[in-house]
Every structure is written in C-alpha cells, then in structure tokens.
Description:
Blueprint: E1 7-8, H1 12-19, E2 27-28, H2 35-40, E3 44-47, E4 51-55, E5 57-59, E6 62-69, E7 72-78, E8 85-87, H3 88-94, E9 100-105, E10 111-124, E11 127-137, H4 145-148, E12 152-154, E13 163-167, E14 172-176, E15 189-192, E16 203-208, E17 211-217, E18 225-228, H5 229-232, H6 235-240, E19 247-251, E20 255-256, E21 259-260, E22 264-271, E23 275-276, E24 279-280, E25 284-289, E26 294-296, E27 304-309, E28 314-319, E29 332-337, E30 340-347, H7 351-354, E31 362-366, E32 369-370, H8 379-387, E33 397-402, E34 405-410
Parallel strand pairs: 7-12, 8-11, 17-26, 18-25
Antiparallel strand pairs: 1-17, 2-9, 3-11, 4-14, 5-6, 6-7, 6-10, 8-12, 9-10, 10-11, 13-14, 13-27, 15-28, 16-17, 16-23, 18-26, 19-22, 19-30, 20-21, 22-25, 23-24, 27-28, 29-30, 30-31, 31-32, 31-33, 33-34
Amino acid sequence: xxxxxxxxxxxxxxxxxxxxxxxxxxxxxxxxxxxxxxxxxxxxxxxxxxxxxxxxxxxxxxxxxxxxxxxxxxxxxxxxxxxxxxxxxxxxxxxxxxxxxxxxxxxxxxxxxxxxxxxxxxxxxxxxxxxxxxxxxxxxxxxxxxxxxxxxxxxxxxxxxxxxxxxxxxxxxxxxxxxxxxxxxxxxxxxxxxxxxxxxxxxxxxxxxxxxxxxxxxxxxxxxxxxxxxxxxxxxxxxxxxxxxxxxxxxxxxxxxxxxxxxxxxxxxxxxxxxxxxxxxxxxxxxxxxxxxxxxxxxxxxxxxxxxxxxxxxxxxxxxxxxxxxxxxxxxxxxxxxxxxxxxxxxxxxxxxxxxxxxxxxxxxxxxxxxxxxxxxxxxxxxxxxxxxxxxxxxxxxxxxxxxxxxxxxxxxx
Length: 414
C-alpha cells in the first residue's frame, strides 16, 4: 500500500517479502484450506476478450480504476507494490469470512496486523479473477484514509497469468492474455521479472555502475527511482550522482497502513548511471529512504509506458512518444497531519528553508488564502484544496504559527 524501496542482491528477496507483509506466523482460523495453501494457489482468470482496456484516473500519484468485488462496484487504487486490500466497510457489506490473519510490516516499517478474506470474484474490465485472497484494512485508522480509498487497493497477487500495460499518456491500463501482448518496441528496455511467490510483486534487477541489486516496480510510489539508504550510500552510487544535483533534507516518507512514517534523513539527486535490463535509463531523478526495498515508481510513467509481462517473464519500459515535462521540485512538502496542514518534508538550502520554514511548521495560509477547516466532515475537501487550488509548491508566501502568532514567510522563486 502506497509503499516504497531495496537491499543487497543476496538478501533482496527476504527484504522485499518482509516489506510487503507476507504471511509469517499467521494465526489461522478453522477452515477447509490452510491460509498458506490458499496463498500458494494461482488466481483463476476468466476473459471476455484477449485484451481488456481499463481507464484510470490519477489521484495525486496513485492510479485509480473501477472494479467489482463480488458484484459490488467500487473505485480501487492499482498498486503493484502491495498485496490487495479491501476496506473493512466493504468486507462487512459483502459478508466475507475471515480465513486467517497476518502480522507484517508496512512500507514505513511499522508493524500492522490484518485479516485475510477471499473474494469469489474480482472483475476489472472484461477480466474476472476468481478466489482472490485479500487483506482487510480499516482505512478510517489513517487520518485521510477515507478520502483516498474507496474499495481499497488492487495489488500484485492478481498480476501472474496476464501482461499489464500502464500508459499514463492515454490514461489506460491494458490487461493482455498470454500471447496477446505485442512485441517490445524498438528502443524499449526489457528486464527479466523475478518470481518469489505470493504476493507476486514485480521485482527486477538494476545496476549503478558495478553495484547490482534488485528493486520493485511500485505504482504506490510517486518517485521515478527510490534507493534504500544502504544502496544509496554505496561507492558506485555516490560516484554516479551528477555534480551539483545532491540535496539533503529531513522529513517523512509518507503514509502507509501504520500511519505517517517518522521523520528521517532525505536525499534527492540525479543519477548519470542507472541500468535496467542491460540498458541505461539514466539520467534519472532519485530519492532515498531508510526502509527497503528500492523501487521504480510512477514518476517513470511520465517518460515510459511500462508493461509487466508475467507470462513472458519480463518487464518492458518503452519510451513515450509524448513524454510529460518534468515537474518542478519544491524544497518542501505539506500534508494534513493531526488536523492541520504541516511541513512534512524540508530540504536544507532550499528557498523555503532559507526563508525560515521549519520541519513541522503549522501552515495557516498559502499566498494569503486561509487554510480551510479540517475536521471529520471537512478533511477530504481540505485535502483536495491543498493538492489542487492551493498549489503549495508554487507559493510565494506561507503563513506559519510561531509563538502563538501568525508569521508570513516570503518564499523566493527557486
């Protein structure tokens, strides 16, 4: 779920599985089949046509599609870096029976316990997936969870048996039957997909000069490339950082099932060496985090159409004919936390930091427009305002609370 990041190649498998909260010491309910057997069985697939094209919308960086869970239509986040999860509300509406539970760690390393249920059918476009094991999560436990998630998350355990093409330019997710996916275009980067069992996350090899490792293709991450700190600290990666591109800061790596991650050190930089499938994708913008594994996220969809061809055992990164312009990088990030708009990321030496902005500052106005009320009934509207009309990354003035009074900070242009 909205996950992120990597490790050394010799133990990358273990780290990736732990990060995706795979069943370990699962507490099983009495049932006809043990949970381990349910998770080991492939999900059955029924198709109306060899190719199903499903439109998606973007909610911030997330890809949102419509699907039917046991006949009930909901919007779901399509997240290749997470097992499938449905909301507690939907599970109760469908009358689903718990078949077991699992305690694992979320994308920020927090320990989370969830129940397992089985969907009889999950319909996406003209494709029906049968007997799909899914986790159940109460999104109300996250401050903005009900604003971001309707039915829940469609994740990686349904990926085997199909090829999945994500075209952000067209806003389409195409699901191909085996043998129906077109051949990789000339100039595309092709990399083997590794298979590790449930939840069948798309894991590929990458290399930065002589440092070789594995990463996860994760549509739950907004970045192009995210390197686990220990990989980012390696000598080959440091040598591949473009001079003058390194920025350091501090802040949270985002919200996952266990809530917002604790603040920690941040870096972002441009890599002049980044190889997938034996071909350079560099230069790429990269960030870091403290929890593995490393990953490629939706930032790469601005320049590439990505196909996860599970029957063919490969991931294909084809350059887009209409690449989107790179988004400007602000030196800070704002988010709703604890009922207020706060600074959750801040990079040293950025214009905002030089203007006096501090990590954790409470923002009460952006360019003179007061932050709307944030409460149980209004938090979703406030979130939409902050993500849209407020345009915080382009703000010229931020009003913060200091010593019980409002202080206006003038933010110079980057």
